[in-house]
Specification:
about 400 residues; mainly alpha; two-stranded antiparallel ribbon
Length: about 400
């Protein structure tokens, strides 16, 4: 199917004389590459007749990328780079903002993208953008093109909105909504799990001994008190008097760290600070699916269940979210739907998936297992204790309940 010049104009909604390189490029990408290649001479003649010949560099680049696509050698990145080199296609990533694919853009994102394209067209007409240099990947031209977009994205529109701020705020709202939904699904799953497991008695003597040790740890410098403090948000002078409340607050913090308030000089050197930051980052990389897999295995297994970092990773690998006793579609609701950035997250592999990385998952759970030992949730043999059997599921209820309440 040949793509005529008039069809390109229809797709772009402009006359041939007003078509941009981006208009032509987008039209070429709507048909199979072989058809697009066959259409190039006719489109070029039509553009020339309309007094809008574009440039030989553009037509050469179009032919080259279409041949790459036809041969199966072009990547998505190659096509994206060629499209951006038209001089009016925004970069896929500008500052902290990543443009979604057109079909997935919100109304706000579609509006801002259209506004930016119009701005780039104005700058192109003013001679501030040289697409031929962009095609040649000239460093100065490419950097100037990015800076031009960044200036627009961070400048106020006539109505007072700053595109970058409004887009990032919208993304934050979407992320929080997805996270809340995942919390709700996980909370329902844990409640159903505990209904199946039945009573898990609190061992008062074990709790009392653990709380006494924890109060000492929190009062001292360095690990583990410093990390527990940062995870839980508790400060040594403001600890709950009730042992159960103290223990559950600390355990919930391990699963959902508040983040470092101030890693400043508190008796530790830079290497100690770096290590704690690394541990915190590992914990934060554990997602709903991973925690649910682990808590399910421990709650169902009861005291004595293996709980080393390697064991916890294995529970994630073997967890079956399709268990008919589990409520809801946990596969869809908890498995990779939160904060999806296009990259594989730990725990996104299903049981039996050859790509599951046991060592990476084990590395994420190493600081968790260490802190659970400090809490007394697992013993020196890295097995679940009666205190852990009672407390870890209760802590997860707090993590996933609205506003942190059970």
């Amino acid at each position: 199917m040949n793509l005529e010049a008039d069809r390109v104009a229809d797709l772009a909604g402009r006359p041939l004389s007003g078509l941009t390189r981006r208009d032509v490029a987008l039209a070429l990408l709507t048909v199979p590459s072989a058809d697009a290649l066959a259409s190039l001479p006719g489109i070029r003649r039509g553009m020339l007749a309309a007094g809008n010949p574009l440039s030989a560099v553009f037509w050469s680049s179009a032919e080259a990328i279409l041949h790459q696509i036809a041969d199966g050698h072009a990547t998505v990145g190659d096509v994206r780079t060629w499209l951006e080199a038209t001089g009016t296609e925004p970069n896929g990533i500008i500052g902290l903002h990543v443009w979604d694919e057109q079909s997935e853009r919100s109304q706000l994102a579609a509006e801002m993208h259209t506004r930016l394209v119009s701005h780039l067209e104005e700058r192109l007409a003013a001679g501030e953008i040289d697409p031929d240099l962009l095609v040649a990947a000239d460093p100065g031209a490419c950097q100037a093109y990015i800076e031009l977009q960044e200036r627009w994205m961070t400048s106020a529109l006539p109505d007072g909105r700053v595109p970058m701020d409004t887009l990032l705020d919208e993304k934050d709202e979407e992320f929080l909504a997805e996270w809340d939904a995942a919390d709700a699904d996980a909370l329902a799953a844990v409640r159903a799990l505990l209904d199946r497991v039945g009573d898990r008695p609190l061992p008062p003597a074990d709790l009392s001994r653990a709380a006494a040790r924890l109060r000492q740890d929190l009062a001292g410098p360095g690990w583990p008190g410093r990390l527990l403090t940062e995870c839980s948000g508790l400060r040594p002078k403001d600890l709950p008097a009730d042992d159960a409340e103290l223990w559950l607050r600390l355990a919930a913090g391990v699963a959902s760290p508040e983040g470092p308030d101030d890693w400043g000089p508190a008796g530790q050197d830079d290497s100690e600070t770096d290590e704690m930051e690394s541990e915190l980052a590992a914990i934060c990389a554990i997602d709903h699916f991973d925690w649910l897999a682990v808590i399910t295995a421990l709650a169902e297994g009861g005291p004595g269940t293996l709980a080393s970092a390697a064991d916890l990773a294995a529970y994630v690998r073997d967890y079956d979210p399709e268990d008919p006793e589990d409520p809801g579609d946990l596969d869809g609701d908890l498995h990779g739907d939160v904060a999806d950035d296009g990259e594989d997250e730990p725990g996104e592999e299903f049981p039996g998936d050859d790509e599951f990385d046991d060592l990476t998952m084990e590395g994420l759970f190493l600081p968790v297992a260490s802190l659970w030992q400090v809490l007394g949730a697992i013993d020196d043999d890295e097995r679940l204790t009666p205190l852990g059997w009672w407390g870890l599921p209760e802590a997860m209820l707090r993590v996933w309940a609205p506003s942190g309440g059970a």
